[in-house]
Amino acid sequence: MCKTARKIMARTRVYLDWAATAPMHPQAAAAVAEACARLAAGDWANPSSVHAPGRAARRALEEARARIAARLGVPTGSILFTSGGTEAIALGLAGAPPGPRLVGATEHPAVRAAAPGARPVPVDSAGRIDPDALAALLAAAGGPALVAIQHANNETGVIQDAATIAEVVHAAGGLWLADCVQTAGKLPLPEGADMIVVSAHKLGGPPGVGALILRERARFSPPQPGGGQEGGLRGGTENLPGILGFAAALEALEEGWAERLRPLQRLLEDAVCAAGGEVNAASAPRLATVSSIRLAGLAAATQLMALDLAGVAVSQGSACSSGTLRPSETLLAMGLAAAASESLRVSTGWGTSEADIARFLDAWRPLAARARRVGRRAA
Ligand code: PLP
Hints:
Elements: H1 3-12, E1 14-15, H2 26-41, H3 52-72, E2 79-82, H4 85-95, E3 101-104, H5 109-114, E4 119-121, H6 131-139, E5 146-148, H7 162-171, E6 175-179, E7 195-199, E8 210-214, H8 240-252, H9 262-274, E9 278-279, E10 290-294, H10 300-309, E11 312-313, H11 329-333, E12 343-347, H12 354-378
Parallel strand pairs: 1-11, 3-4, 3-5, 5-6, 6-7
Antiparallel strand pairs: 2-8, 7-8, 9-10, 10-12
The structure holds pyridoxal-5'-phosphate.
């Protein structure tokens, strides 16, 4: 492709993969750059050092913690900074009191990998946890359990019933770890969760920073105390530029911004259904920013590649580290075996416009026509 064509493509590229990583908000990028400049100038140093630049870094760190806490509506002292959602999940699962582990059937791979041998908590075909099944598993667990259930799913956007989950888990003497990586900055965090996981890069902050929020520090034993940082509960020098970028990103979000994308989601989903596609988990309460779309008869990998060539970035929801595509484990857990290999995730954010949705539909409709032709030939 010639340079001019590449430039035009780049300019007209449509990014609809916000649930994987949101573009960094300009205010977050500026905060990271400013922090790096201060570290480069020697004005700031290691926040654990007792000298003046160390103390200045500590002040900036603690101010950022308070700003993040205020935005997330949690006590400042409950926040342990981590290198992202994956580490926060692993830390929460390893540091919770010993005992049985239960994990939602549609959890992110980071949860399943950190809880080997955990009992899965089934979901229905709309992706929602069945509270009776959860209660039965807790009763049979043989002791107070740690239950990891996400607030909203990363592939379908399905939002769990947080109040009911908290009630059922606590009635059985258990603890609830809520993976809120997809909801932080979009929905209020669940009040009944004992541990909450958040990640900056899903909401416009930099990648490589997140937090584990602990309602009760006393019940948590650090698996790796390290150098005593984060109150001795998470060793390792804090990522100060990243944390400042996280605070700036949260502050840049306007109240109710995510819900304002609902009309765009409707526009997208109505057009998809009119062209012969389906929306997975359509009947469940869902984030306005995530849609899982199935095109029966056409492999997700084929759709993904055709859209990429047309300059539209979406995802299948789960790509392994080698970059190859596998059927969606979320949709498989929902009993949607056929949809698992034929569905794409379209995810939006504060920068998405109606024109982006129109560009997606322009590129996707020919695929729907192709799927219909394939279907007619097969019939
Ligand atoms: N949990 C959910 C629901 C996610 O969507 C992701 C990222 O895709 C993670 C956890 C992992 O977060 P991080 O990328 O910050 O490690």
